[in-house]
Amino acid sequence: MLRILRNEYKTNIKRMSKGGAIAIGLLIEKFQEFLENLFEPKKKTKLEELYELDSIIKANFTISVLEITEERFEEVSSKLNPIDIQTLDKIIVLTYSCVNSVQKSELIERLKKNESLNKRLLDLIQFAENKSNILSLERNNIKNSLQHQLKERDVY
Question: What whole-number distance in Å separates Cα of residue 46 and Cα of residue 82?
Fold first, then answer.
């Protein structure tokens, strides 16, 4: 269909004014964008990804994001051992992203109420660094940001 429109555009361009040709060109571009968006898979929000990850770790490792962030780290660390480094990174990144976003949900509100969440995320980052020798820039950026936030809070 786009080929037909483009061919008609090319043949009729000679008969149109410059403004009309531009308008037809824009129409074709917008229609093409519409078709591309129609068939592209919908991207999940960070919150949707966090809920999905929570379900996966509950099913496979019998622990939840809330347990990881709220229970004593000594108790949680034994349950974290079987979790692969990519999943640990997702837990860290998604938890940090959701808490620092404007999205609202019961899970995010509960995470935000946890006063020691930043410290717990740093514990998780340290655990992940000890578990793997792979450098994660995202994890490192979060670590630096959390350390900075904790220093500012201690100063004031």
Answer: 24
Residue 140 has what pLDDT?
A: 92
User: Using CA atoms, how far apart are residues 111 and 109, in angstroms rounded to an integer?
Assistant: 5
Does residue 24 carry a pLDDT above 80?
no
- Residue 10's pLDDT band, with cuts at 50, 70 and 90, is low
Residue 145 has which token pair? 């940001």
Evaluate whether 154 touches 107 at the Cβ level (below 8 Å).
no
Q: How far is 125 from 93, CA to CA, in rounded Å?
A: 10
Question: CA 101, CA 8: separation in Å to the nearest integer?
Answer: 47
Question: How far is residue 84's CA from residue 82's CA, in Å, rounded to a whole number?
Answer: 6
Closest CA to 98 of 86, 89, 107, 87: 107
